[in-house]
Amino acid sequence: MNRTSDAATRRPPGEENGAGSGRRGEGDRGASGRPTEDPRAPLPSHVSEVPDLPPAARDALRAALPALGIEPSPDLLPGLEGHLRLLLAWTTAVNLTAIRDPADAVRLHVLDSLAAVPVLRARGVDAFVDVGTGGGYPGLAVALALPARRALLVDSVAKKVRFVATAIDALAVGDRVEAWAGRAEALAADPAHRGRWPGVLARAVADLADVAEVSLPLLAHGGTLVAWKREPVTAELAAARARIADLGGGRAHVERVDAPGLEGHRLVIVTKVRRTPDRYPRDPAVRAREPRPAPVS
After folding, report:
1. DSSP alpha helices (H): ranges in the chain?
2. Rounded distance, CA 184 to CA 139, Å?
3. Hey, how many other C-beta atoms are within 10 angstroms of the C-beta on 96?
4. How far apart are CA 266 and CA 264, in angstroms?
5. Ordered domains of the chain (ranges, CATH)
6. What is the pLDDT of residue 288?
7. Do the beta carbons of residue 164 and residue 24 sit within 8 Å?
8. Helix, strand, or coil here: 284?
């Protein structure tokens, strides 16, 4: 494992670093400076070190991909399966996901994530930031399936980023996919990233208004935000409408997820139509006190 100094870990990754060494930002260490996981219990770093998925889970994955408009090719399936196998193996020692059953994980992690692939392909999005990537869903799965030219997978929890970076290395996609530990607010303040990305993904992160506030500043004009939600979404959409407009977003629209077992799942899609004002994104504590700032005269 590569390790970086505390001074370097707090800087968002700039363009000069490229998409992909797979290196960590705040990386392998917690706030105390100690490794996040117990060094006495090494965690697997290669797909060959972890159990195969059960046949029923593998069959469910292969059978469901065509419904999402994705070809279950021999190049794609090993990556999707390898990522999930590593996640399930790590989760026995590190709490990365509450979903432990392989069949449920295929449906609720892999297929749910891949639901965005047709949307991104239709809009020509081949590079994106995944805000709050967790165990690499949706970002790593989407990067494999598009396939993405560049993807930056962001999370504020160091142990999750350590896992995602390990999966990136194990799948040999570090030339185009990178994991970074830090807050999306910091990334959005960095000129190397603000207003430069064609796409932003946000799954199971926060309510739509907060998702929009940390995501839309990162988007280039015409870029696409995809946020994963579940029914009912009408009230949340209504509550977020004014802030989305403030942020330079167009009208949000909702698409159904066409995959077995995901009938109540929805994708909320927002296109950036205007420049985001410099005052966004605000600190999370400020957002909580003042959901929508007063207009600037």
Report:
1. 6-9, 55-64, 77-91, 102-105, 112-114, 117-122, 139-145, 158-170, 184-188, 208-215, 234-246, 284-289
2. 14
3. 21
4. 7
5. 20-27+107-289 (3.40.50.150)
6. 79
7. no
8. helix
Place of tokens 């889970």: 57
- The residue length of the chain stands at 297
pLDDT one-digit tens code per residue, 94-144 = 999 999 999 999 999 999 999 999 999 999 999 999 999 999 999 999 999
The C-alpha angle with vertex 121 and arms to 228 and 135, in degrees rounded to 5, equals: 40
Cβ-count burial of 21 within 10 angstroms (0-12 exposed, 13-18 middle, 19+ buried)?
middle
Question: For residue 95, what are its two tokens?
Answer: 């709490």
> 180, 13 in Cβ contact below 8 A?
yes
Residue 109 DSSP one-character state: I
The amino acid that residue 124 corresponds to is G
The answer to whether residues 158 and 26 touch, using CB atoms and an 8 Å cutoff, is yes
CB under 8 A, 24+ apart: contacts of 254-259: 254/229, 255/119, 257/112, 257/115, 258/67, 258/68, 258/115, 259/64, 259/67, 259/68, 259/107, 259/111, 259/112, 259/114, 259/115
- Looking at this protein, which amino acid is placed at residue 67? A
The residue among 232, 230, 171 whose CA lies nearest residue 203 is 230
pTM, entire model: 0.86
CA atoms 28, 165, 140, 193: torsion sign: positive
Tokens 């996919």 belong to which residue? 177
Helix%, strand%, coil% for the chain, nearest 5: 40, 15, 45
Better pLDDT: 13 or 257: 257
What is the rounded CA–CA span in Å between residue 92 and residue 89? 6
